[in-house]
Amino acid sequence: MPQNQLQNIKYSILDLATVCKGDTIQQTFHRSLDTAKHAEKLGYTRYWFSEHHNMESVASAATSLLIGYVAGGTTTIRVGSGGIMLPNHSPLIIAEQFGTLGTLYPDRIDLGLGRAPGTDALTAMTIRQAPMNMHYDFKAAIQTLQQYFSKENKTARVRALPGEGVTVPIWVLGSSTDSAYLAAEMGLPYAFAAHFAPAQLQQAMEIYHTRFRPSSFLAEPYAMACVNVIAADTAAEAASLSTSLYRMFLGIFTNSRSPLQPPVPYEEMERLWTPEQKYGVMQMLSASFIGTPDTIKEGISGFVAETGIRELMVISQIFDQKKKLHSYSLVRELFTGQ
Q: Which parts of the sequence belong to the Luciferase-like domain (predicted)?
């Protein structure tokens, strides 16, 4: 890849409203707004939140409310969902919620849609009031949502007010090839969750780009991938900061979803996980870029070239807020050269 090709790639942020050990949820929300304001100054394109439920470490359950909070505290950066788990909701309610957001913050709201539960099976059943194995037609639900947003729906008996006629771009999100087929068929932008499920990334991107059908929403394929990034001034500091991320994912294997832990010396990880756990964590986090800006730039440049993405979304699970903001500043320099 040419030295300056990253300058043609948009860069964005995913936020889970991750709760750090010792912080209240209110403090967590304030951190998110602080980070979004910092990202806006740095020229990041989007700031997305992801819907999760029943997790002590993640506070983004009421996703649309959090989007409104951050959109109201910023002025130019796009704010949206990465994503709303559509099977958890009525399409009409989502059209009304995002129609409201799109009315309050015109041309700044994105609606990324996923079909995973965003939680455990019992909680998902509680939310949906239906069995988890019940058939769900994701495509039909998206089409229903599109209809509610359309001006043509004004003659229907059920209307989304607000929502009707409001421009809110819809993205298909995914972590497997199924979503790639759907996004390509519907002619919608596609975002892949490589930050925790990188295994089918390359195959999904190939499917999306080769099968894409132009639509009234999008003339040509537009793909984005989300990856983990931890940037620091030295490799040793980045390695230490990364231990918070590793311990978070270790919690998935040990069923311990505690708040984000402070970093430890990287060497201490060997006593915190078994070889099997380490292998599993590293597999899930293989789309991660950790180190100094020079090291990260080489890795990200290769990643962009291999996937053909037009935009990179990054998530930085860093315990210390100042170091997290500094990491995002370093990442921005990769794309702008400034």
A: 22-310
Expressed in angstroms, the distance from the first to the final Cα of the chain is 19
Q: Identify the three-state secondary structure at position 226.
A: strand
Domain residue spans in the chain?
5-228+309-317+324-336
CB 212 within 8 A of CB 309: no
Give the separation between CA 97 and CA 92, rounded to whole angstroms: 9
Hey, is 108 helix, strand or coil? coil
- Give the DSSP letter string of 299-331: HHHHHHHHH--SEEEEE---SSHHHHHHHHHHH
> Is 159 a residue whose pLDDT tops 80?
yes
User: What is the tens place of the pLDDT at every residue in 66-93?
Assistant: 999 999 999 999 999 999 999 999 999 9
Angle at 138 between CA 190 and CA 249, to 5 degrees: 60
Q: What percent of the chain has pLDDT over 90?
A: 88
Q: How many CA atoms lie within 13 A of 222 on its CB side?
A: 17
Give the whole-angstrom CA distance, residue 260 versus residue 51.
17
The reported pLDDT for the residue numbered 150 is 97
Q: Smallest Cα–Cα separation from 111: which of 99, 124, 121?
A: 99
Contact 58, 18 (CB under 8 A): yes
CB burial class (10 A; 0-12, 13-18, 19+) of residue 279?
exposed
Q: 5-228+309-317+324-336 sits in which CATH class?
A: alpha beta
Query: Which residues make Cβ contacts (< 8 Å) with residue 130, sequence separation at least 6?
Result: none
**CB pairs under 8 A, 24+ apart, for 104-108?**
104/68, 104/71, 104/72, 105/68, 105/71, 105/72, 105/79, 106/167, 107/167, 108/71, 108/76, 108/77, 108/78, 108/79
